[in-house]
Design goal:
Helix 1 runs parallel beside helix 3 and helix 4 packs antiparallel against helix 5. Strand 5, helix 11 and strand 6 form a beta-alpha-beta unit. With 290 residues, the protein is of the alpha/beta class. Strands 1-7-6-5-2-3-4 form a seven-stranded mixed sheet, with helices on both faces. The radius of gyration is 18 Å and the shape is globular. Helices cover 51% and strands 12% of the residues. The chain contains twelve helices and seven strands. The chain has two domains: 61 residues, Orthogonal Bundle (Helicase, Ruva Protein, domain 3), CATH 1.10.8; 218 residues, Rossmann fold (3-Layer(aba) Sandwich).
């Protein structure tokens, strides 16, 4: 997905919020926001991909402020809250008939968990609301049935998105393994925004559930094959199906040729993404690209 007019405001707003989190030094904040203006003036265009611009922007903020992980406290709190809810969520999913219905519910949990994303302009979230949302929300685009038959007994790579959310991804991993799948989970190699890293994966116990836990070798938002490690690419080559989480994956994957079927699971948290995929803001999406 290419950047839209509205993306400019969000890119600045999210950058500004990150600077505010990264340092309390007023002079450093001013310096960082000036550089943010310059960066967006140089990089923002209707040919840019929001996830790529966002990745470079947050690296710039990290470099100027000297703070390697401005969202570390947010991530820890979201992981803790999600873990407390995990038994209730698991019970809700396991109450569905075994097979497709249970897989679909696990996908829905993974998408509702994707709401955990701070500092998106006009978007509010609360990890603790996942239980109520599970009973009240559904998919606006639902390709889970095709995905269900596609993944049976296959090797699946899940590209994780946010901390907190990754705890709910455990439910999806459990269901996939019951379907005879081998599951590799990939997280970011370094902190960026509130995206899950190895530390977050271990904090919620993903390492005990996934058959293999790896990193993308990068901190880039979404999935850009030109920015990941050789080790990640080698593991990707061995997988049959990709399940990619979050709007960043939607923005990036739709701009590349990926020679694997990809199920993208995300909540459309902003108008540009919602309009691009053809849903309303706040809708849940399970989009299969094959």
């Amino acid at each position: 997905m290419k950047a839209k007019f509205q993306c400019a405001l969000c890119e600045f707003s999210r950058g500004w919020e990150t600077i505010k989190r990264a340092t309390k030094d007023e002079k450093l904040r001013i310096k960082a926001v000036i550089e943010l203006f310059r960066f967006l003036a140089d990089e923002f265009s209707d040919e840019a991909v929001p996830a790529w611009i966002g990745s470079k922007k947050h690296r710039l903020i990290r470099e100027i402020t000297g703070n390697p992980d401005p969202y570390i406290e947010v991530k820890a709190k979201d992981n803790e809250r999600a873990l407390k809810l995990l038994p209730l969520v698991r019970t809700a999913v396991n109450s569905k008939p075994e097979g497709y219905e249970r897989f679909r519910e696990a996908c829905k949990v993974a998408v509702i968990g994707n709401a955990a994303d701070p500092d998106i302009l006009g978007h509010e979230y609360d990890v603790s609301s996942v239980i109520s949302l599970l009973s009240h929300e559904d998919f606006a685009i639902d390709h889970t049935k095709n995905a269900y038959y596609l993944v049976q007994g296959k090797k699946v790579m899940i590209i994780a998105d946010n901390a907190g959310e990754i705890a709910f991804d455990i439910i999806l991993v459990e269901q996939l393994k019951k379907m005879g799948c081998k599951v590799v989970v990939a997280v970011k190699a370094k902190p960026i925004l509130n995206d899950a890293t190895i530390e977050d994966a271990f904090a919620v116990g993903m390492n005990e559930v996934a058959d293999k836990l790896i990193t993308t070798g990068s901190d880039v938002i979404g999935l850009f094959l030109n920015a990941v490690s050789e080790e990640f690419l080698a593991e990707l080559e061995l997988c049959d199906v990709i399940i990619a989480k979050g709007m960043g994956c939607y923005e990036s994957i739709t701009e590349q040729e990926i020679e694997k079927p990809v199920l993208i699971l995300f909540k459309a948290k902003c108008d540009p993404v919602a309009e691009d995929v053809g849903v309303r803001r706040g809708d849940n999406v399970a989009l299969l690209i094959s």
